[in-house]
Amino acid sequence: MTGVRHRVLGASDVSATTVRRSRRPGGRAPHRRIEHDVQQRAEGLPIYQDNARQLSDFTCSQGYQHALSAHSLASGYGFNRGTVIYFAVDYDATRDEIDAAIVPYFHGVAAGLAYNGRRYVHGVYGSRNVCTVVSRQTGARYSFVSGMSWGFSGNLGFPIPANWSFNQIKEFKVTNGSDTFDLDRDVVSGIDPGQSSVNQPSGPADGFIDYVQRLYDHAVAYPGEGDPNQLVMEYIRHEAYGGGDWDFLIGSYNSEFVDYADGKGMSVMTDFTDPYTAYELGAEHLMASANGHYVSWMPSNPRSVNAGDVAGWGGDLLTLYVDWRRASDQYPDGRTFVQLKMAKVGVASSFGYNDLIEDADAWLLAKAVRDGRTIAQAVRDLYNGGGGLTRFSRYWSGRFSGNAEDAKFLAHNILTAADDAKVIAAQVGLVTVRGGIKTLPAMLGYDDLEPFEQGFVDVMLARTGTERRLRATYEANHEKYLKAARSRAARE
Q1: Which one-letter DSSP state was computed for residue 195?
Q2: pTM of the predicted model, to two decimals?
Q3: How confident is the model at residue 318 (pLDDT cuts 50, 70, 90)?
Q4: Strand positions, DSSP E, 306-411
Protein backbone atom coordinates (compact mmCIF):
# COMPACT_ATOMS: atom_id res chain seq x y z
CA MET A 1 0.00 0.00 0.00
CA THR A 2 1.47 3.34 -1.01
CA GLY A 3 0.95 6.87 0.18
CA VAL A 4 -1.73 8.68 -1.76
CA ARG A 5 -3.02 12.20 -2.10
CA HIS A 6 -6.58 12.46 -0.89
CA ARG A 7 -9.31 14.48 -2.53
CA VAL A 8 -11.74 15.45 0.20
CA LEU A 9 -15.31 16.12 -0.83
CA GLY A 10 -16.79 19.36 0.35
CA ALA A 11 -13.47 20.90 1.34
CA SER A 12 -10.16 22.03 -0.07
CA ASP A 13 -7.56 19.56 -1.26
CA VAL A 14 -5.95 17.67 1.57
CA SER A 15 -2.68 15.85 1.11
CA ALA A 16 -1.64 12.96 3.28
CA THR A 17 1.99 12.77 4.31
CA THR A 18 2.09 9.01 4.66
CA VAL A 19 4.97 7.41 6.51
CA ARG A 20 5.10 3.69 5.87
CA ARG A 21 7.68 1.10 6.83
CA SER A 22 7.72 -2.41 5.41
CA ARG A 23 10.15 -5.31 5.43
CA ARG A 24 11.92 -5.98 2.19
CA PRO A 25 12.23 -9.59 1.05
CA GLY A 26 15.27 -11.45 2.27
CA GLY A 27 15.19 -10.18 5.84
CA ARG A 28 16.95 -6.90 5.11
CA ALA A 29 16.65 -3.90 7.40
CA PRO A 30 13.39 -1.93 7.42
CA HIS A 31 12.98 0.38 4.48
CA ARG A 32 11.29 3.71 5.12
CA ARG A 33 9.60 5.64 2.35
CA ILE A 34 8.05 9.01 2.92
CA GLU A 35 5.71 10.37 0.31
CA HIS A 36 4.87 14.02 0.58
CA ASP A 37 2.48 15.54 -1.95
CA VAL A 38 1.21 18.91 -0.86
CA GLN A 39 -0.33 21.14 -3.50
CA GLN A 40 -0.45 24.90 -3.31
CA ARG A 41 -3.21 25.99 -0.88
CA ALA A 42 -3.62 22.37 0.24
CA GLU A 43 -3.79 21.17 3.80
CA GLY A 44 -1.57 18.30 4.89
CA LEU A 45 -2.19 15.54 7.36
CA PRO A 46 0.27 12.89 8.56
CA ILE A 47 -0.50 9.16 8.65
CA TYR A 48 1.95 6.71 10.17
CA GLN A 49 1.98 3.05 9.21
CA ASP A 50 4.59 0.45 10.07
CA ASN A 51 3.26 -2.74 8.45
CA ALA A 52 0.09 -2.69 10.62
CA ARG A 53 -1.56 -5.49 8.63
CA GLN A 54 -1.79 -8.30 11.16
CA LEU A 55 -2.24 -8.86 14.86
CA SER A 56 1.46 -9.46 15.53
CA ASP A 57 2.25 -5.91 14.37
CA PHE A 58 0.53 -4.45 17.45
CA THR A 59 1.97 -4.40 20.96
CA CYS A 60 2.35 -1.66 23.54
CA SER A 61 6.13 -1.53 23.07
CA GLN A 62 5.75 -1.34 19.28
CA GLY A 63 3.29 1.52 19.67
CA TYR A 64 5.77 3.35 21.88
CA GLN A 65 8.60 2.95 19.37
CA HIS A 66 6.36 3.90 16.46
CA ALA A 67 5.36 7.09 18.27
CA LEU A 68 9.01 8.02 18.77
CA SER A 69 9.63 7.46 15.06
CA ALA A 70 6.49 9.37 14.04
CA HIS A 71 7.43 12.33 16.23
CA SER A 72 10.90 12.47 14.69
CA LEU A 73 9.53 12.33 11.15
CA ALA A 74 6.71 14.82 11.76
CA SER A 75 9.02 17.33 13.38
CA GLY A 76 11.46 16.84 10.52
CA TYR A 77 8.71 17.79 8.11
CA GLY A 78 7.91 20.80 10.26
CA PHE A 79 4.39 19.84 11.33
CA ASN A 80 3.15 22.32 13.90
CA ARG A 81 2.36 21.67 17.54
CA GLY A 82 -1.03 20.06 18.02
CA THR A 83 -1.01 18.24 14.67
CA VAL A 84 -2.94 14.95 14.76
CA ILE A 85 -0.92 11.98 13.50
CA TYR A 86 -3.14 9.10 12.37
CA PHE A 87 -1.66 5.70 13.29
CA ALA A 88 -2.92 2.98 10.97
CA VAL A 89 -4.66 -0.32 11.69
CA ASP A 90 -4.75 -1.65 8.15
CA TYR A 91 -6.53 -4.95 8.63
CA ASP A 92 -9.90 -6.23 9.85
CA ALA A 93 -9.25 -6.51 13.58
CA THR A 94 -11.93 -8.28 15.62
CA ARG A 95 -13.15 -6.93 18.95
CA ASP A 96 -11.07 -9.50 20.84
CA GLU A 97 -7.97 -8.45 18.90
CA ILE A 98 -8.76 -4.77 19.47
CA ASP A 99 -8.96 -5.29 23.22
CA ALA A 100 -5.93 -7.59 23.41
CA ALA A 101 -3.49 -5.80 21.11
CA ILE A 102 -4.77 -2.69 19.31
CA VAL A 103 -5.74 -0.75 22.42
CA PRO A 104 -2.40 -1.52 24.19
CA TYR A 105 -0.61 -0.48 21.00
CA PHE A 106 -2.31 2.92 21.11
CA HIS A 107 -1.55 3.28 24.81
CA GLY A 108 2.08 2.82 23.77
CA VAL A 109 1.62 5.43 21.05
CA ALA A 110 0.27 7.94 23.57
CA ALA A 111 3.18 7.24 25.93
CA GLY A 112 5.71 7.66 23.14
CA LEU A 113 4.27 11.01 22.08
CA ALA A 114 4.24 12.10 25.74
CA TYR A 115 7.94 11.24 26.01
CA ASN A 116 8.62 13.92 23.39
CA GLY A 117 6.60 16.58 25.15
CA ARG A 118 3.18 15.87 23.62
CA ARG A 119 3.92 18.08 20.64
CA TYR A 120 1.74 15.83 18.50
CA VAL A 121 -1.58 14.13 19.19
CA HIS A 122 -2.54 10.61 18.18
CA GLY A 123 -5.44 9.79 15.93
CA VAL A 124 -6.48 6.42 14.53
CA TYR A 125 -6.95 5.08 11.01
CA GLY A 126 -8.99 1.90 10.71
CA SER A 127 -12.44 0.35 10.58
CA ARG A 128 -15.39 1.93 12.34
CA ASN A 129 -15.13 -0.48 15.24
CA VAL A 130 -11.38 -0.01 15.60
CA CYS A 131 -11.72 3.76 15.55
CA THR A 132 -14.58 3.81 18.04
CA VAL A 133 -12.94 1.55 20.61
CA VAL A 134 -9.47 3.07 20.29
CA SER A 135 -10.86 6.59 20.60
CA ARG A 136 -12.91 5.73 23.66
CA GLN A 137 -10.18 3.80 25.48
CA THR A 138 -7.01 5.67 24.52
CA GLY A 139 -8.23 9.21 23.89
CA ALA A 140 -7.48 9.31 20.16
CA ARG A 141 -8.39 12.81 19.01
CA TYR A 142 -9.85 11.99 15.59
CA SER A 143 -10.72 8.94 13.49
CA PHE A 144 -9.81 8.41 9.82
CA VAL A 145 -12.27 5.67 8.85
CA SER A 146 -11.33 3.11 6.21
CA GLY A 147 -14.92 3.08 5.02
CA MET A 148 -14.21 1.78 1.54
CA SER A 149 -13.12 -1.54 3.08
CA TRP A 150 -16.78 -2.59 2.99
CA GLY A 151 -15.89 -6.25 3.57
CA PHE A 152 -14.31 -5.52 6.95
CA SER A 153 -16.42 -6.92 9.77
CA GLY A 154 -15.45 -3.82 11.72
CA ASN A 155 -17.44 -1.73 9.26
CA LEU A 156 -20.56 -3.92 9.24
CA GLY A 157 -23.33 -2.81 11.55
CA PHE A 158 -21.16 -0.33 13.44
CA PRO A 159 -21.98 3.38 13.47
CA ILE A 160 -19.40 5.85 12.28
CA PRO A 161 -17.39 7.08 15.29
CA ALA A 162 -18.43 10.39 16.80
CA ASN A 163 -14.94 11.84 16.28
CA TRP A 164 -14.62 10.89 12.61
CA SER A 165 -12.66 13.38 10.54
CA PHE A 166 -12.25 11.53 7.23
CA ASN A 167 -14.05 8.57 5.73
CA GLN A 168 -12.64 6.76 2.69
CA ILE A 169 -15.46 5.89 0.31
CA LYS A 170 -13.86 5.00 -3.04
CA GLU A 171 -10.52 4.19 -4.63
CA PHE A 172 -9.77 4.65 -8.30
CA LYS A 173 -6.76 4.71 -10.59
CA VAL A 174 -5.36 7.88 -12.08
CA THR A 175 -3.04 7.94 -15.08
CA ASN A 176 -0.70 10.85 -15.63
CA GLY A 177 1.46 10.12 -18.64
CA SER A 178 3.39 6.95 -17.84
CA ASP A 179 2.60 7.23 -14.14
CA THR A 180 -0.39 5.34 -12.74
CA PHE A 181 -1.39 5.53 -9.10
CA ASP A 182 -4.36 4.89 -6.81
CA LEU A 183 -6.34 7.81 -5.46
CA ASP A 184 -8.84 7.75 -2.62
CA ARG A 185 -12.00 9.78 -2.51
CA ASP A 186 -12.88 10.70 1.05
CA VAL A 187 -15.68 12.49 2.87
CA VAL A 188 -14.68 15.11 5.42
CA SER A 189 -16.48 16.06 8.62
CA GLY A 190 -14.53 19.29 9.07
CA ILE A 191 -13.31 18.70 12.63
CA ASP A 192 -9.71 18.23 11.47
CA PRO A 193 -8.81 20.93 8.93
CA GLY A 194 -5.33 19.52 8.44
CA GLN A 195 -2.23 21.69 8.47
CA SER A 196 -1.91 24.55 6.01
CA SER A 197 1.57 25.60 7.15
CA VAL A 198 4.74 24.06 8.55
CA ASN A 199 7.38 25.29 10.97
CA GLN A 200 5.00 27.90 12.33
CA PRO A 201 6.57 29.55 15.39
CA SER A 202 4.62 30.01 18.59
CA GLY A 203 3.04 33.41 19.00
CA PRO A 204 4.15 35.88 21.65
CA ALA A 205 2.59 35.87 25.10
CA ASP A 206 0.69 39.11 24.52
CA GLY A 207 -1.29 37.29 21.83
CA PHE A 208 -2.22 34.63 24.39
CA ILE A 209 -3.11 37.29 26.96
CA ASP A 210 -5.43 39.04 24.51
CA TYR A 211 -6.91 35.69 23.51
CA VAL A 212 -7.71 34.78 27.13
CA GLN A 213 -9.27 38.22 27.66
CA ARG A 214 -11.55 37.79 24.63
CA LEU A 215 -12.50 34.29 25.74
CA TYR A 216 -13.18 35.53 29.27
CA ASP A 217 -15.39 38.34 27.93
CA HIS A 218 -17.43 35.72 26.05
CA ALA A 219 -17.64 33.62 29.22
CA VAL A 220 -19.00 36.60 31.15
CA ALA A 221 -21.57 37.28 28.42
CA TYR A 222 -22.53 33.60 28.12
CA PRO A 223 -26.25 33.27 28.97
CA GLY A 224 -25.86 29.77 30.39
CA GLU A 225 -24.54 28.66 33.75
CA GLY A 226 -20.92 28.44 34.80
CA ASP A 227 -18.02 30.23 36.47
CA PRO A 228 -16.44 32.38 33.72
CA ASN A 229 -12.93 31.55 34.96
CA GLN A 230 -13.59 27.84 34.82
CA LEU A 231 -15.31 28.11 31.45
CA VAL A 232 -12.15 29.66 30.01
CA MET A 233 -9.94 26.91 31.43
CA GLU A 234 -12.31 24.23 30.17
CA TYR A 235 -12.52 25.70 26.69
CA ILE A 236 -8.76 25.85 26.19
CA ARG A 237 -8.26 22.29 27.46
CA HIS A 238 -11.34 20.62 25.97
CA GLU A 239 -9.81 19.22 22.77
CA ALA A 240 -6.64 17.74 24.24
CA TYR A 241 -7.69 17.20 27.85
CA GLY A 242 -11.41 16.58 27.75
CA GLY A 243 -13.61 13.51 28.06
CA GLY A 244 -12.79 10.06 29.41
CA ASP A 245 -10.16 10.08 32.13
CA TRP A 246 -10.27 13.86 32.45
CA ASP A 247 -14.00 13.83 33.12
CA PHE A 248 -13.35 11.41 35.97
CA LEU A 249 -10.40 13.38 37.28
CA ILE A 250 -11.61 17.00 37.29
CA GLY A 251 -15.08 16.95 35.74
CA SER A 252 -16.45 17.35 32.24
CA TYR A 253 -16.12 20.59 30.33
CA ASN A 254 -19.15 22.70 29.47
CA SER A 255 -19.88 21.64 25.89
CA GLU A 256 -22.60 24.27 25.52
CA PHE A 257 -20.11 27.02 26.24
CA VAL A 258 -17.69 25.44 23.78
CA ASP A 259 -20.38 25.68 21.10
CA TYR A 260 -21.18 29.24 22.18
CA ALA A 261 -17.53 30.34 22.01
CA ASP A 262 -17.02 28.58 18.67
CA GLY A 263 -20.03 30.50 17.38
CA LYS A 264 -18.30 33.72 18.39
CA GLY A 265 -15.31 32.81 16.23
CA MET A 266 -13.10 31.43 18.99
CA SER A 267 -10.87 28.37 18.64
CA VAL A 268 -8.29 26.69 20.85
CA MET A 269 -4.92 28.41 20.98
CA THR A 270 -2.45 25.59 21.45
CA ASP A 271 0.79 27.37 22.31
CA PHE A 272 2.65 30.60 22.93
CA THR A 273 6.18 31.70 23.76
CA ASP A 274 7.18 32.23 27.37
CA PRO A 275 8.44 35.84 27.66
CA TYR A 276 11.07 34.90 30.26
CA THR A 277 12.74 31.75 28.96
CA ALA A 278 11.65 31.99 25.29
CA TYR A 279 10.42 28.39 25.58
CA GLU A 280 7.32 27.22 23.74
CA LEU A 281 4.54 26.57 26.24
CA GLY A 282 1.48 24.39 25.65
CA ALA A 283 -1.66 26.33 26.47
CA GLU A 284 -3.84 23.21 26.60
CA HIS A 285 -1.70 21.46 29.22
CA LEU A 286 -1.34 24.73 31.12
CA MET A 287 -5.07 25.25 31.40
CA ALA A 288 -5.86 21.59 32.07
CA SER A 289 -3.50 21.70 35.04
CA ALA A 290 -4.85 25.06 36.20
CA ASN A 291 -8.40 23.71 35.91
CA GLY A 292 -7.40 20.70 38.01
CA HIS A 293 -5.92 22.82 40.79
CA TYR A 294 -8.83 25.26 40.62
CA VAL A 295 -11.51 22.63 41.21
CA SER A 296 -9.38 20.39 43.45
CA TRP A 297 -7.21 22.67 45.56
CA MET A 298 -4.51 21.58 47.98
CA PRO A 299 -5.61 19.24 50.77
CA SER A 300 -5.56 20.60 54.30
CA ASN A 301 -2.68 18.24 55.02
CA PRO A 302 0.14 19.75 52.93
CA ARG A 303 1.73 16.32 52.47
CA SER A 304 -1.41 14.76 50.97
CA VAL A 305 -2.12 14.62 47.25
CA ASN A 306 -5.31 14.78 45.21
CA ALA A 307 -6.76 15.08 41.71
CA GLY A 308 -5.38 18.59 41.29
CA ASP A 309 -1.86 17.26 41.72
CA VAL A 310 -2.53 14.47 39.23
CA ALA A 311 -3.64 17.10 36.69
CA GLY A 312 -0.30 18.84 37.11
CA TRP A 313 3.08 17.83 38.51
CA GLY A 314 1.88 14.49 39.90
CA GLY A 315 0.69 13.13 36.58
CA ASP A 316 3.96 14.20 34.98
CA LEU A 317 5.96 12.47 37.72
CA LEU A 318 4.00 9.25 37.18
CA THR A 319 4.75 9.31 33.44
CA LEU A 320 8.41 10.03 34.25
CA TYR A 321 8.35 6.90 36.40
CA VAL A 322 7.19 5.00 33.30
CA ASP A 323 10.12 6.46 31.35
CA TRP A 324 12.50 5.31 34.09
CA ARG A 325 11.17 1.76 34.25
CA ARG A 326 11.46 1.49 30.47
CA ALA A 327 15.09 2.54 30.75
CA SER A 328 15.90 0.85 34.07
CA ASP A 329 18.50 -1.46 32.53
CA GLN A 330 20.46 1.59 31.43
CA TYR A 331 19.58 3.70 34.48
CA PRO A 332 19.13 1.40 37.48
CA ASP A 333 19.45 4.34 39.88
CA GLY A 334 16.27 6.41 39.86
CA ARG A 335 17.94 9.52 41.22
CA THR A 336 20.43 9.64 38.40
CA PHE A 337 17.67 9.11 35.85
CA VAL A 338 15.53 11.95 37.20
CA GLN A 339 18.47 14.32 37.39
CA LEU A 340 19.28 13.58 33.76
CA LYS A 341 15.75 13.56 32.36
CA MET A 342 13.38 15.74 34.39
CA ALA A 343 12.97 19.39 33.33
CA LYS A 344 16.27 19.29 31.50
CA VAL A 345 16.58 21.84 28.71
CA GLY A 346 16.83 20.11 25.34
CA VAL A 347 16.31 16.59 26.73
CA ALA A 348 13.37 14.46 25.56
CA SER A 349 11.21 13.39 28.48
CA SER A 350 7.58 13.06 29.46
CA PHE A 351 8.38 15.57 32.24
CA GLY A 352 10.32 18.12 30.24
CA TYR A 353 11.38 21.65 31.06
CA ASN A 354 8.29 23.15 29.45
CA ASP A 355 6.09 20.72 31.39
CA LEU A 356 7.50 21.96 34.70
CA ILE A 357 7.00 25.59 33.64
CA GLU A 358 3.40 24.80 32.72
CA ASP A 359 2.85 22.94 36.00
CA ALA A 360 4.22 25.85 38.03
CA ASP A 361 2.29 28.47 36.07
CA ALA A 362 -0.90 26.43 36.30
CA TRP A 363 -0.68 26.28 40.10
CA LEU A 364 0.04 30.01 40.27
CA LEU A 365 -2.89 30.83 37.98
CA ALA A 366 -5.28 28.66 39.97
CA LYS A 367 -4.15 30.26 43.22
CA ALA A 368 -4.56 33.76 41.81
CA VAL A 369 -8.08 33.05 40.61
CA ARG A 370 -9.02 31.41 43.90
CA ASP A 371 -7.68 34.54 45.61
CA GLY A 372 -9.98 36.79 43.60
CA ARG A 373 -8.30 37.61 40.29
CA THR A 374 -10.05 36.75 37.04
CA ILE A 375 -8.29 34.25 34.81
CA ALA A 376 -7.61 37.06 32.33
CA GLN A 377 -6.03 39.21 35.05
CA ALA A 378 -4.03 36.28 36.39
CA VAL A 379 -2.60 35.46 32.97
CA ARG A 380 -1.72 39.10 32.39
CA ASP A 381 -0.02 39.38 35.80
CA LEU A 382 2.00 36.24 35.20
CA TYR A 383 3.30 37.02 31.71
CA ASN A 384 3.18 40.82 31.45
CA GLY A 385 3.48 41.79 35.10
CA GLY A 386 6.69 39.94 35.91
CA GLY A 387 5.09 37.10 37.85
CA GLY A 388 7.04 34.51 35.91
CA LEU A 389 10.36 35.81 37.20
CA THR A 390 9.79 33.91 40.44
CA ARG A 391 7.51 31.12 39.19
CA PHE A 392 9.57 28.22 40.50
CA SER A 393 10.32 29.83 43.85
CA ARG A 394 6.66 30.64 44.48
CA TYR A 395 5.56 27.19 43.30
CA TRP A 396 8.14 25.52 45.54
CA SER A 397 7.11 27.51 48.61
CA GLY A 398 3.38 27.32 47.84
CA ARG A 399 2.72 23.71 46.89
CA PHE A 400 5.78 22.04 48.42
CA SER A 401 5.96 24.12 51.61
CA GLY A 402 9.40 25.33 50.64
CA ASN A 403 11.22 22.38 52.11
CA ALA A 404 12.74 19.17 50.80
CA GLU A 405 11.14 16.91 53.38
CA ASP A 406 7.57 17.84 52.44
CA ALA A 407 8.40 17.69 48.74
CA LYS A 408 9.75 14.16 49.13
CA PHE A 409 6.63 13.13 51.03
CA LEU A 410 4.48 14.53 48.23
CA ALA A 411 6.49 12.67 45.59
CA HIS A 412 6.14 9.45 47.55
CA ASN A 413 2.41 9.93 48.03
CA ILE A 414 1.63 10.70 44.40
CA LEU A 415 3.47 7.50 43.47
CA THR A 416 2.15 5.18 46.18
CA ALA A 417 -0.75 6.68 48.21
CA ALA A 418 -3.75 4.37 48.57
CA ASP A 419 -6.23 6.71 50.30
CA ASP A 420 -7.60 8.67 47.31
CA ALA A 421 -9.56 6.91 44.56
CA LYS A 422 -8.52 9.35 41.85
CA VAL A 423 -4.84 9.15 42.76
CA ILE A 424 -5.00 5.35 42.76
CA ALA A 425 -6.73 5.41 39.37
CA ALA A 426 -3.96 7.67 38.05
CA GLN A 427 -1.24 5.34 39.33
CA VAL A 428 -2.79 2.32 37.65
CA GLY A 429 -3.95 4.17 34.55
CA LEU A 430 -0.78 6.10 33.75
CA VAL A 431 1.74 3.46 34.78
CA THR A 432 0.16 0.12 33.86
CA VAL A 433 -2.75 0.71 31.48
CA ARG A 434 -1.29 3.52 29.40
CA GLY A 435 2.38 3.09 30.20
CA GLY A 436 2.52 -0.68 29.89
CA ILE A 437 4.59 -1.02 33.10
CA LYS A 438 3.27 -3.76 35.37
CA THR A 439 5.42 -2.78 38.34
CA LEU A 440 3.60 0.01 40.13
CA PRO A 441 5.74 2.33 42.27
CA ALA A 442 4.29 0.85 45.46
CA MET A 443 5.61 -2.56 44.38
CA LEU A 444 9.22 -1.38 44.45
CA GLY A 445 11.28 -1.67 47.57
CA TYR A 446 12.28 1.43 49.51
CA ASP A 447 15.90 1.25 48.32
CA ASP A 448 14.72 1.30 44.69
CA LEU A 449 12.00 3.97 44.86
CA GLU A 450 13.53 6.41 47.36
CA PRO A 451 16.32 7.57 45.00
CA PHE A 452 13.72 8.36 42.30
CA GLU A 453 11.78 10.49 44.80
CA GLN A 454 14.96 12.21 45.94
CA GLY A 455 15.79 12.98 42.32
CA PHE A 456 12.50 14.87 42.04
CA VAL A 457 13.43 16.98 45.07
CA ASP A 458 16.91 17.60 43.64
CA VAL A 459 15.49 18.92 40.37
CA MET A 460 12.94 21.16 42.07
CA LEU A 461 15.65 22.70 44.23
CA ALA A 462 17.94 23.07 41.22
CA ARG A 463 15.25 24.89 39.25
CA THR A 464 14.61 27.40 42.01
CA GLY A 465 18.35 27.99 42.25
CA THR A 466 18.74 28.43 38.51
CA GLU A 467 15.85 30.88 38.51
CA ARG A 468 17.68 33.09 40.99
CA ARG A 469 20.97 32.88 39.11
CA LEU A 470 19.41 33.71 35.76
CA ARG A 471 17.11 36.45 37.00
CA ALA A 472 19.00 39.19 35.14
CA THR A 473 18.71 37.22 31.90
CA TYR A 474 15.00 36.60 32.40
CA GLU A 475 14.43 40.28 33.22
CA ALA A 476 16.20 41.30 30.01
CA ASN A 477 14.16 38.82 27.99
CA HIS A 478 10.99 40.10 29.58
CA GLU A 479 11.80 43.74 28.92
CA LYS A 480 12.57 42.93 25.28
CA TYR A 481 9.23 41.14 25.03
CA LEU A 482 7.32 44.06 26.60
CA LYS A 483 8.94 46.51 24.20
CA ALA A 484 7.95 44.34 21.24
CA ALA A 485 4.43 43.92 22.65
CA ARG A 486 4.02 47.69 22.94
CA SER A 487 5.20 48.07 19.36
CA ARG A 488 2.69 45.46 18.18
CA ALA A 489 -0.10 47.18 20.07
CA ALA A 490 0.78 50.54 18.54
CA ARG A 491 0.51 49.11 15.03
CA GLU A 492 -3.00 47.75 15.61
Answers
A1: B
A2: 0.86
A3: very high
A4: none
